[in-house]
């Protein structure tokens, strides 16, 4: 009884194997724990979701997928954001835990670092957009390193040789770092110069982006931005330098957000299945929490959308 209580109330240490056995028994028996300390009006279970930014269309799409899936299962969704700040993640998760969620879906800055800084006792947890770790083996991701390689090869195949990578800070996003590593792979394999990434803050850097020094130093014919919002910021910064996209400089991004298709010319980007990834993470979490399924890593595909922001240049250029 004490072990069952620790598992269902998340009140103490229990081995992973015993935790799965208890949850499976509860599921087989149709047992549902009654929360006697819930605030008035709370009538359904909830899950907690941590994202870096609620205003980023990528995470908004993921949240939509999560909420739609949880609505079917009768769960509510609590949301916290870290503002791309690793130091805020633990406090945000603590806030979610006060509502005794069935489980958590987390997008963290760096999962290898976060697994040692988050609270010791957590309900079933699924990482979204982060690669799995020893502590968090359940994850839903896309292959960001491969995506970075593909978009770089797309530019190389269009004749570009001097390619700059502009990114949010790597300590704030392992996704950006993996995309840069894919860029490095492609450039090195093609015997082309690998430039250090120009890193800026995710939250405040886009509107203030100044590419003047980078353009004078590296003279790139193409720029890869680590996400579509930043790619739009890059295009604006190039225009302030008197440069045209794609006639003077080609620009690409990642994510495939709707606004990138509405600008002229449409943005060349790697499209991610953000809503589908959110729904998949929600289904995986419920399977683990309610059916004692084994945590697993699910990878969702991506595709290249060739817009109008990349031009072909002569090899001699």
Description:
- With 317 residues, the chain is an alpha/beta fold.
- The chain folds into 3 domains: 1-33, no CATH class; 44-141 and 273-299, 3-Layer(aba) Sandwich (Rossmann fold); 144-272, Response regulator (Rossmann fold), CATH 3.40.50.2300.
- It contains 11 helices and 12 strands.
- The strands form 2 sheets. Strands 2-1-3-4-5-11 form a 6-stranded parallel sheet, with helices on both faces.
- Helix 1 (2-9) crosses helix 2, helix 2 packs across helix 11 (274-291) and helix 3 packs parallel to helix 11 (274-291).
- The termini are far apart.
Give the tags.
single chain; six-stranded mixed sheet; DNA-binding; elongated; transcription regulation; Rossmann fold; alpha/beta; DNA-binding transcription factor activity; 3 domains; Peripla_BP_I; 11 helices; 317 residues
